Amino acid sequence: MKLYEKLADEIEEAVRRGVFAPGEKIASVRQASQQHGVSIKTVLHAYAILESRGILETRPQSGYFVRAKPHAGAAHSQPKRVIATASEVDVSRLVLSTLRSIRAHDAVPFGSPYPDPEPFPWRRINQYANAIARRQSSWNLIDDLPPGNPELIRQIARRYAENGVPVDPDEIVITVGATEAINLSLQAVAQPGDTVAVESPTYYAMLHAIERLGMRAIEVPTHPAEGIDIEALAQIIGRRKIAACMVMPNFQNPLGFQMPDERKRQLVELLGAHEIPVIENDVYHELYYGDTRPSTLKNFDTKGLVLHCASFSKSLTASYRIGWAMPGRYRAQVEKLKFLNTLTTPSVPQVAIADYLRQDGYDRHLRRVRKLYRQQSRIMSAMVERFFPAGTRTSAPQGGYVLWVELPERVDSMRLYRAALDSGITVGPGYMFSTRNAFSHFIRLNYSYPWNAQSEAALQRLGELVGEIGQRAGKDANMGERA
């Protein structure tokens, strides 16, 4: 065992035994170095491990503290076994209404699906784009044709290769964000009327793609730590024809989990045995909180059945909407559909991002963002625990920037959504993440924006609204029983 691992284990054991209480400040890096007779670098590495395990947390300009104990149970703590039925999909109106509310009311953006752009290097990328535009006043349309800019494709393939994902650059097709990559991939593997298996809850962009193409969704219970219930999926496959499966194995929106490698392998093997393609939405893949970048389903794909989709929108810049697909055996079909659907992806954004990746500190930027999101996830979780009524539970995100919150069962998330909007606050109601209204007392919160007095006051007000709505619902239920 390495020295920093031994030190981390010793501190974790002390916390477990109650030597250090939740919320208590521990020795500074310099003090710990002196106390344990090790280097400052060793202490920093040990503290980083303890942060990734959820034992410690850092507070800006204050030091390291023992993380408060989690709720008694995690939100949506066990997958609920339900009778799986395929459903028509129509969640787009609710999602569009929510997004318009955020824009129109200039509200506190807890309900936003987008990250705060301020920490991102968008100004630097804009400088590259402006320089490119001045350098070349006109573009040849032929240069924009699929699969995309060769240098950007090379840079993307290089990042995967550096992280242990075997990628053939010729497989990559540049798209207008991950949304287009998902739509093209689904269009390549399924037909209108087909049934597509999705996680439950699932990211609504998946449901939009299914709705747009006239397909049906069948929801599969999903565990908040292990991902889609593979056993339940196997039973569904045994009963009916499934054209494709759509999942987010890493930092799933809204649950935030990182699917264990063994479960990823089992999922790919199950679908491969039935020749069922799987569309992997890996848009949050760079926003991990651990020490290493997570594996993808692509790591375990030997048949070309994984259609991997990602983008720079969540980690670099959302304004340029540059994504990509690695569609395996369906690559030719996806490239053809890209040409038929949108013809090209604009060149200037592609070249600007390629220049940034080649010349600037993308990894340095990502380290800052990951640290920021990890800190703010813990702050928001602690504040929900503090301000929301008993019976509230939260997820434990391993990456990304969203928190899934289970409210007391009597609290309807649409009623809360409307009441919160009247107070200048937005939330993501649970109705958006299912076709079956299965998460009516859940909400999704975005913690990427700065934590300040305004956001704390907004979350406190949100907790008050949850309590008020729950009390009213309880009184209505009692009146109904007496009647």
TrEMBL record:
Listed InterPro entries: Aminotransferase_I/II_large, HTH_trans_reg/aminotransferase, PyrdxlP-dep_Trfase, PyrdxlP-dep_Trfase_major, PyrdxlP-dep_Trfase_small, Tscrpt_reg_HTH_GntR, WH-like_DNA-bd_sf, WH_DNA-bd_sf
One Pfam match, given by its short name, reads Aminotran_1_2
Transmembrane portions of the chain: none
Boundaries of each HTH gntR-type domain copy? 1-69
Q: Which GO terms describe its molecular function?
A: DNA binding; DNA-binding transcription factor activity; pyridoxal phosphate binding; transaminase activity
In which family does this protein belong, per the annotation?
A: In the C-terminal section; belongs to the class-I pyridoxal-phosphate-dependent aminotransferase family.
Name of this chain's protein = GntR family transcriptional regulator
Source organism per entry reads Caballeronia glebae
